[in-house]
Specification:
- By secondary structure, the chain is an alpha/beta fold.
- It has helices at residues 2-21, 27-36, 43-46, 82-110, 123-141, 148-170, 172-215, 224-257, 309-318, 345-359, 373-383, 408-420, 425-433, 438-442, 451-478, 491-496, 498-507, 531-549; strands at 265-269, 274-282, 295-299, 324-328, 365-371, 388-396, 485-490, 514-520.
- A hairpin with a 4-residue loop joins strand 1 and strand 2.
- The longest helix has 44 residues, at 172-215.
- Residues 1-71 are annotated as: Disordered.
Length: 554
């Protein structure tokens, strides 16, 4: 008896399982059909099993009296629909693609892969890709909790990025700086924002569809967990909107700055990969003996040449001390594009030589440089020593001290500032409330806030104690020993740093023809910011020019 009862119970359980899976019709309905004879079954009871049925548990919760599942049953899910599952799978694939692109852009900041180098900083396309990955992650994390608020916010982000795309494509300078990688990153961002709106809408439809099918009505309430998911998702998207608005404001400032007129021209160098700015003032004269007066070639320190350093030289030109001078912006400074990474001081020296050749400018040269620019100037002098008739170093940086700008911590900080530079918070507040002008942002006191400048500083940091140090050490061994040399040092720097003073003295020995070594007592690193510093610099420059006119060369 026990065996027979157990077998009968098992058969009954199997029948119940089949009834649950095929629509949840009870045994009363079967009895009614047996008594009344065959009758048409409901659509739910008569339909063939489909792919959604396989996702239902074998023993779901007992159905309500009407044969429907409880709204809180885990089986009531939009994931029952293959459309929803396919969209989620595609979102995961898009996230993987975005992550690969993000890694490539990150690497290109430090080492530019072929085809991914841009004439801009590279931080903007990295920022757009990061934003795109954030939208996809947000969509996947809260995939099963769709809401109208999320769709609206995602749509707003997409519209703002479309505005950014229009600005980038419309302004020639920005379009050239961002290049194909930047434009592709923005287009991808537009596509993904639209994709997120679509998937959220489809999931909302699928959720309603499954609720009607399995519970008999669409659910109008949300659980606490669902409300928390919606609130978190909308908060994140609101932050993304603020980010995109700031990036748009930064692009507007960049488009305005691109219209700032410049002296001189931009010349494409290094196989036309990027352009550098070069300008010359005045005209060379020829003496009765047929000697051409030297042209002063200016190399700035850690800021663009136009920021103060060129002003004192223009005064020397106005005073008749010199006949002609040329100045340029290293890659990433002022009107010059960024170069691909890595970029060393020797590469900058070659860029300068190529730009001078394209401009038709010829020596003889008297090189005037300061700070880090002295490294570039010394390499240029060694590679073109026959055309250099004088060297003036203003509080120069010694190659043994390059490690100070090559520290990993400094590089990490520069990279961090570069990553947030597309937000342009300082630039925007400066323009709105600080009265900052285009000149301030392009080459003035706010130039350090721009992504191009930060990228240039980062490039100098990455190779300062390796490639650049090797180049300048080699330059010292081949430097023309008869070239007249002037060194002007900062008294403040020498008093504060004994190593700096010793290295200043060592730099007076890079040639055997030292004209003078002056230590300006109250002058800072930027010696030309003081009256005494300008006076001494102009005086020594005049001596070098006279020496050059007399025909003394390396």
């Amino acid at each position: 008896m026990t065996t027979l009862w157990g077998s009968k119970k098992k058969d009954d359980d199997d029948i119940d399982d089949v009834l649950h899976v095929n629509g949840g019709e009870g045994s009363d309905n079967m009895a009614r059909e047996s008594e009344d004879g065959p009758r048409p079954r409901s659509a739910r009871a008569s339909r063939e099993p489909n792919e959604r049925d396989r996702l239902l548990p074998r023993n779901p919760r007992p159905p309500h009296g009407d044969g429907y599942l409880d709204p809180d049953d885990p089986a009531v899910s939009p994931y029952n629909l293959w459309t929803v599952r396919a969209l989620r799978a595609l979102s995961v694939i898009f996230l993987a693609i975005t992550f690969i692109w993000w890694v490539l852009l990150l690497v290109s900041i430090f080492v530019s892969p072929p085809g991914l180098s841009t004439r801009g900083s590279g931080f903007f396309d990295f920022a757009y890709t990061t934003l795109t990955a954030g939208m996809l992650l947000n969509s996947l994390l809260f995939f099963s909790a769709p809401s109208l608020a999320m769709r609206v916010l995602q749509g707003v982000i997409g519209l703002i990025i479309v505005v950014d795309l229009i600005i980038i494509v419309s302004v020639a300078r920005i379009r050239g700086e961002e290049g194909p990688p930047g434009i592709a990153s923005v287009v991808w961002g537009v596509f993904i924002s639209g994709w997120c709106v679509l998937t959220d809408r489809v999931v909302a439809w699928g959720k309603k569809e499954e609720e009607e099918r399995l519970t008999g009505r669409p659910e109008t309430r949300r659980t606490v967990r669902e409300w928390l998911a919606v609130i978190t998702a909308t908060t994140i998207l609101s932050i993304y909107i603020a980010i995109t608005i700031l990036m748009t404001c930064t692009l507007i400032l960049r488009s305005r700055d691109a219209s700032l007129e410049m002296d001189g021209e931009r010349y494409f160098v290094d196989g036309d990969k990027y352009a550098v700015h070069l300008a010359c003032v005045g005209n060379s004269t020829t003496s009765a003996s047929g000697k051409k007066s030297p042209t002063i070639l200016l190399e700035a320190a850690e800021d663009p040449s136009e920021f103060d350093f060129e002003h004192w030289l223009y005064n020397a030109y106005e005073n008749g001390t010199i006949d002609k001078y040329c100045y340029w912006d290293r890659p990433g400074y002022a009107w010059s594009d960024n170069a691909p990474s890595p970029h060393s001081a020797g590469m900058s020296a070659d860029n300068l030589a190529e730009a001078l050749a394209l401009a038709g400018e010829e020596g003889p040269w008297v090189l005037v440089s300061a700070g880090y620019g002295s490294i570039v100037s010394r390499i240029f002098s060694a590679r073109h020593f026959r055309d250099v008739v004088g060297i003036m170093l203003v509080d120069p940086l010694h190659e043994d001290l390059l490690h100070r700008i090559a520290s990993p911590m400094r590089g990490f900080i520069l990279w961090g500032w570069g990553v947030i530079s597309p937000l342009g918070i300082q630039r925007i507040t400066g323009a709105l409330f600080g009265g900052r002008s285009r000149e301030d942002r392009v080459y003035g006191k706010d130039a350090y806030q721009g992504g191009k400048y930060i990228k240039a500083q980062l490039q100098e940091n990455l190779v300062a104690d390796s490639l650049t140090r090797s180049e300048v050490s080699t330059a010292r061994t081949v430097q023309g020993v008869k070239t007249p040399l002037v060194v002007v040092s900062s008294g403040i720097s020498c008093r504060k740093d004994e190593d700096w003073k010793r290295k200043q003295e060592d730099l007076t020995k890079i040639t055997d023809n030292l004209v003078s070594w002056d230590i300006v007592n109250k002058a800072p690193h930027y010696i030309w910011e003081t009256y005494d510093g300008r006076q001494i610099m102009e005086k020594r420059l005049g001596e070098l020019v006279k020496s050059g006119k007399s025909g003394k060369k390396a």
